[in-house]
């Protein structure tokens, strides 16, 4: 397949819309200068929603966003501010790790320690360190990796989804989505430095996921461990996993990659309707939730490049993303099963998905 960046005007429009419409929202109205944090979400008039909380994960995702654009005006300064805020507002000086959220005044709100947040801190700090090579960033990255290894890791190669403020066991067990973003974080660490321990942890994680999370009939990645009651799969996560595994030389020949490669067709057949990626299905392919989310569309789009789907299909899917989710004022976060806009706010976490989608589309051929 020829390189899509030279042949698809849809990609150029997507990139332009992202750079000119979406990113500036978080340099201007989406930024709380007093707190040096992004607001959780903006409404369709670019006004911040009433502040209930700020999440460490949202801060980390925006750190990734601006470090990925570090050569653009104001991006380096914004990334530096986000990195400082991550430490200032969310780090737990007593027990270590990072709180899930703070309130509008900057006091710890949800004091639990969750793997999803810590995975994004590793991901963002690894990416940022790759750009700036500063010792303080490296030490924060190493501290986050140590916390994950010492507190979240289980004997079976998986990781607890959530722990108490003082690392008490909450009985959460492992869940798929935090494990995926931890794998993504480990891959980012390996992209910027040699790290034998992280590499071994990543391989063990993928082996454990193959054992405990892959459904045998269609090789789907389940959201809860195999055998859990009321389990389901999300097509967007199948596509996201496929991209992560297929783009990694380390993981491309693993059993987990073979499983997700096989699952792709089933997820596409039952989980994509009229170019829209549906939210949740059971393992038989029955739709549980037909909500269409922009992040799932973005994951499907970048995964399609790896499937050598052909420029016509790729262009058609880009057109679907553009027509259904991009708008002059930014984007639509969700549509319901009938195609009606069901969420009008724009969360600060979504640009991460669009940035990684564009990065994947532009560097792959």
UniProtKB/TrEMBL annotation:
One GO process term, biological-process aspect: carbohydrate metabolic process
GO function term, MF aspect, one: isomerase activity
Keyword Acetylation attributed: no
Keywords (A to Z) from UniProt: Isomerase
Family: Belongs to the N-acylglucosamine 2-epimerase family.
Protein name per the record: N-acylglucosamine 2-epimerase
Organism the protein comes from: Pseudomonas monteilii
Species classification: Bacteria, Pseudomonadati, Pseudomonadota, Gammaproteobacteria, Pseudomonadales
């Amino acid at each position: 397949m020829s390189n899509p960046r030279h042949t698809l005007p849809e990609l150029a429009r997507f990139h332009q819309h992202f750079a000119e419409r979406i990113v500036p929202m978080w340099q201007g109205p989406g930024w709380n200068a007093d707190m040096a944090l992004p607001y959780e979400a903006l409404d369709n008039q670019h006004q911040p929603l009433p502040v209930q909380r700020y999440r460490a994960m949202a801060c980390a995702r925006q750190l990734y966003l601006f470090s990925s654009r570090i050569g653009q005006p104001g991006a380096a300064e914004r990334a530096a501010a986000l990195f400082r805020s991550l430490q200032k507002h969310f780090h737990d000086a007593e027990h270590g790790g990072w709180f899930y959220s703070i309130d509008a005044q900057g006091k710890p709100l949800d004091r639990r320690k969750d793997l999803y947040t810590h995975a994004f801190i590793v991901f963002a700090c690894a990416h940022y360190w790759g750009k700036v090579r500063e010792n303080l960033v490296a030490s924060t990255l190493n501290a986050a990796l140590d916390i994950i290894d010492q507190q979240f890791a289980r004997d079976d190669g998986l990781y607890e989804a959530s722990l108490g403020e003082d690392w008490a066991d909450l009985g959460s067990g492992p869940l798929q989505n935090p494990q995926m973003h931890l794998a993504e974080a480990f891959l980012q660490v390996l992209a910027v430095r040699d790290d034998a321990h992280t590499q071994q942890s990543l391989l063990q994680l993928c082996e454990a996921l193959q054992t405990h999370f892959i459904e045998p009939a269609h090789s789907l990645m389940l959201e809860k461990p195999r055998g859990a009651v009321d389990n389901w799969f999300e097509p967007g996560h199948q596509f996201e996993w496929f991209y992560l595994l297929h783009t990694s030389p380390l993981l491309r020949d693993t059993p987990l990659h073979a499983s997700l490669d096989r699952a792709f067709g089933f997820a596409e057949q039952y989980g994509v309707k009229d170019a829209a990626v549906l939210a949740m299905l059971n393992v038989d392919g029955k739709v549980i939730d037909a909500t269409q989310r922009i992040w799932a569309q973005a994951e499907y789009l970048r995964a399609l490049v790896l499937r050598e789907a052909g420029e016509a299909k790729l262009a058609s899917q880009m057109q679907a993303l553009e027509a259904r989710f991009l708008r002059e004022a930014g984007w639509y976060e969700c549509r319901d099963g009938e195609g009606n806009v069901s969420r009008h706010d724009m969360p600060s976490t979504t640009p991460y998905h669009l940035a990684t989608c564009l990065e994947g589309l532009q560097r792959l051929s």
